[in-house]
Amino acid sequence: MKFICNQQTLAKALNTVSKAVSNRTTIPILKGIQICATEDGKLIMTASDLEISIKKEMEADVTEPGAVVVMAKLFGDIIRKLPNEDILISDEQEGSILIKTSFSEFNVVSFPTDEFPEIGNKEEGSESLVFDRNLFREMIRKTSFAASLDESKGVLTGILTEIDETSIRMVSLDGFRLALVKESMTSAAPNKFIIAAKVMNEISKIISEDEEESDIMIYLGEKRVVINIGKNEIIIRRMEGDFIKYNDILPSESTTNVIVNKGMLLESIERASLLSREGKNNLIKIIIKNDLMTITSRSEEGNVREEIIVDKTGNDLEIGFNSKFVLDVLKVIDDEQVSLNFRNGVSPCVVKPVEGEHYEYLILPVRIPSM
Asked: What is the CATH number of domain 2-115?
């Protein structure tokens, strides 16, 4: 194997592929990146942690085709530290590769590709879908925070994507809050799949870093989902299991409805959370009376009181929340105003847009006898 490529181009490609490198694996080869130089002047780099695999294709001046595996961290660190110029990489000596620039030369250990996992392509009969890349990335941003971090909760660590003939929905929940976003799209047939939220976040980063502006292609197979983002191919294992019937969780009616400026509410809760009671789930209390929302919090260090003018219909209300859960929701909403909907002081709050139905967030309250 022997090829020449630009340092910055290679460094960017490594940054993408490295997202699939496993840091915790007991299988040494999975800490590596497979580099394949082809006869037609392509450089294909692949990494996999068996849950997500990433292939990146780039142009190179290939004089001798071949393939090796290199340790991702060391190889990546070397390439990033080299000057912005052409790099010669070759495997003239078995068991190592040469990395050479005008004034630098490295010899690092390499491995044969025999033990590197075979990365499957899209399954035969996979349904293909076209997505606007920015829309897909935003939907991930607005839902991934609500997925569970507890690996024992199975599919709740993932994001459910549901597709019908006219719309796409992404849903996540962790037992304390639920996030649902919905956008319009046209599809030939209904479908749904669950992908781990941490994997979806990596997909979002790849979309942000990719310089092409084309739509992304998604191929849905029975066991794998293949996503093409520019010259990146991401192969993901679908999570198995039945997602919770989230529609049964969302309240169908409310007795108190409040329209409030999102920015003001966010800032007030951020200030109030500074004095949330230590060890008490970041408690804040919200009192809604007439057209005034009062947010309070206290700890041994002091107490705080914030007031916001709101547009309220329905009953007065007193309710408590973990401030972090409320802030997580408000931070991903772009609207200037939001609608907060309550049934009573012990039932979940549902956050919706004032107009339309692009999102719906549910936040469980915390019982607070007194603050």
From this structure: 3.10.150.10
